[in-house]
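thread: overnight batch results

M.L. [08:02]
morning all. the overnight job finished for the chain we discussed friday. pasting input first so we're all looking at the same thing
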Amino acid sequence: MNFDRIKKIERLKRKNRRNNLIKQLSFLSLPKDLFMEVEANESFCRQVFLTLSKHHNPIILQGRDNEETIYMSIQALRNLDMPTALFNKECRVFFFGEYEIEAVKLNVNEVFMNLENVLDLTRFSKGYGDFILVDENLLFGICIERTEYHYELIKWGF
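M.L. [08:03]
and the structure it wrote out:
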């Protein structure tokens, strides 16, 4: 196969994965500009990870086992003391797939009103991916990162 054909097939596969994600998110009100262009998405993800690497003093979340640590992490998300103004904002929530990370635009209030469903779709509640919710300008963010021995909660902008 030639290179252009391979690129086209990969682009169509990603479009299909995005369409499947839209179907899975049907319980939310979805904005028109849900996804970024592929290159913009990759650049944004790199910016977010760079920003996260600069934050020190995370809150350590560690239970007796992985299930308890996940439970503690979900409780920490539910108990975040966020300003009311943030709930009206749109943010990007990271969905970790097998081949890529999608930074999907969602309403903060809807994410927290449907937290269990969102955590299932991000696969965070199964211990697969990190939970990352950030403003497009990186003015605020919440991340629960999985490490080898515990989870780390990083938050900024509120």
